[in-house]
Amino acid sequence: MSARKAAIIGGGVIGGGWAARFLLNGWDVALADPAPNALAAVKATIARAATAYVALYDAPLPERGTLTHTSLAEAVTDAAWIQESLPERLSLKHGIYAEIAEHTDLPVASSTSGFMPSELGAGAFVAHPYNPVYLLPVVELVFPETIPQPARDRMAEVLTGIGMSPLTLRREIPAHIGDRLLEALWREALWLVRDGIATTEEIDRVITHGFGLRWAQMGLFETYRIAGGEAGMAHFLAQFGPCLQEPWTKLTEVPELNDDLIATIATQSDAQSGHFSIAELEAQRDRNLVAILRHLRSENWAAGTTIR
Length: 308
Prior knowledge:
The chain is α/β, with parallel strands linked by helices.
């Protein structure tokens, strides 16, 4: 086994982000993806990540690892980490896991947004990141009972070593932590657009000009603790808790994503951001995240504590 080789299975947005995270932290990366443009796409992600890292880190970066585009068998052989980032189809994942098992008994880490280890099977575990993987440090870990604690600790150490902030769930649950929260917000946003209450731009403005600024540095509960004043969280809950009984939201209902709603969202999104290319939006996003992370580092606060 190579102590510093990561096999990246799937070179899409998330897989490319994993490749960049490992490679720029000194690991060799073996990419397995049959798509003809997979290597070019991953190289573009690595270039974007390298630009961000130069701005983010004051300390010298480790010597960059080597990137190879190879078969699944060659990628996983002698790998110290296997990260699967395939589409959310269990049959596809199960097939790949079976192939991997022919060449190694190393547990596979899955980037799955919603599946649990009991559904993944084959001893696979969840290592769910957030996009862009090379900048956002948190990664949700969900282990099956078959992986003992010492092995779990070693896996968390690997992720910490590449600048991530692993968070292990106490037990499995569909969509883990972050995506459950995001889905609740997403459902309500869809209702607001469907019912003609707000456009995509107006909803995003409420987030980017309002509570989104708070969440980047204090999260949900710490923000609400401040809202409770010197009396703290107990006072906040006593004051605002009864509001939860009001029918303000539709979080238990899902609007039908019919052609009309899809067209409305797409049209509004085009009006909001269509004058930018995706590459331009990604570059702007990265510059903003770097600036936020650097300030948080100067305060030794939140995600800034992960920046060396």
